[in-house]
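Wed. Picked up where I left off yesterday with Amino acid carrier protein. The coffee machine is broken again, so keeping this brief.
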Amino acid sequence: MEGFIQAVEAFSAWLWGIPMMAVLVVTGVFLSFRLRFFQVKYIGYIIKQTLGKIFSKEELGEGTISPFQALTSALASTLGAGNIAGVSVAIYYGGPGAVFWMWVVAMMGMATKFTETVLSLKYRERNEEGEYVGGPMYYMTKGLGWRWLGIWFALAFIVELFCSIMVQSNSIAGNMAESFGVSEYLVGLGAMLFVGVVVIGGIKRIGKVTEKMVPIMALLYTLGVVIIIVMEIDKLPSVIWLILRSAFVPMAPIGGFMGASLAAVLRWGFARGVYSNEAGMGTAPIAHATASTDHPTRQGLWSVTEVILDTLACTATAFAVLISGIWTSEIAAVNPSSLAALSFGRYFGNLGSGLVALSLFLFVITTVLVLVFYAEKQVEFLFGLKAAKLSRYVYIAAIYIGAVGGAKVLWHFLDISLAMIVIPNVLVLLLLSKEVVELKNEFFYTDGRYYLKDKTKG
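Structure written out below (tokens, as returned):
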């Protein structure tokens, strides 16, 4: 059994190295060109129509929750340990230049996430309770007529989500035990009860919770970084130059940093960008499909903003780690994933380390919350609404099982099951990209009902 697990781990490491990164990066590049880099051309308009409309009460169309609630629900899944620990590891192994390539991949990922969100809105439908549901399984079935692929996606996603929920809850328990000495059993029970109460209320309750929790946790963490930047404002220009210069030049060893080749810079930058924003993985469109909107493209703009905000969270970690200089210290080699906590600790003492631990807890607990919802939607697609409501209790129970370290053997299959949903999803995005181009052009160019109308209002 041990030999089999090692073989699975080796295959997963290879698969999520160059092969999967190439698939996702090439997809983002292709879609960016096909959509004529709208994410750059209309960036001001996108921000104005999303973040600029957070407090707007204007009803634009039909849906189950508000566009902002859909955004925060999707963000709850993408914002997680990867934004803190993942970025720290990328800098340690790839150097500061990895941050630049993370930015580049994020820009390409905007086109991918826009594409899957627009398709999800176009092919969404109402369930028995009148709520809107959508996602890759729906545009695979209705867009291409490939229900068999929708079934494949849903089944693979169920397996992936079950593993992912346990891994995330174990991360919560381990973090709280290490930082505050709280028992994994108590953390698991508390997390299970919290998620259960919220999820049983459906997407409307999830939206109400995430629209409050996600901004608070993001602002809390970002505020700490801003204070560090202000305290070391004289270092900011040199840090930015370091990121840009080392993106194209191999990095020599400095202190505890072992140096990085250009290949390592690209590998870690691409990996962090791909893993963090989840573009092409088919997750966020499930949340965005529930939004109230008058056009699929308009909600697609919110998904672009989602990538921007996720990348800002990663950038915040990068600036804290680089400005503090902790990434070149000897202690960095002991546990590269803790660089953010060490950076905060250098400036704020135990309070800073506690802030990072609290941020990690909030990031991960909201991730688990939305993952349970995603899992329920897969069961609904396959077996109907009644089965979906029953399945939520199985996934809620998985939170406790994962927290106490149960079923760890399943975790080794997490990356493989993730690849089983990414590959078919990316294939369908490419095949249906013409429809997305047409919807984008309709919104921005055709008759002025949308974009020109908004410009006139502004």
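Quick read: The longest strand covers residues 125-126.
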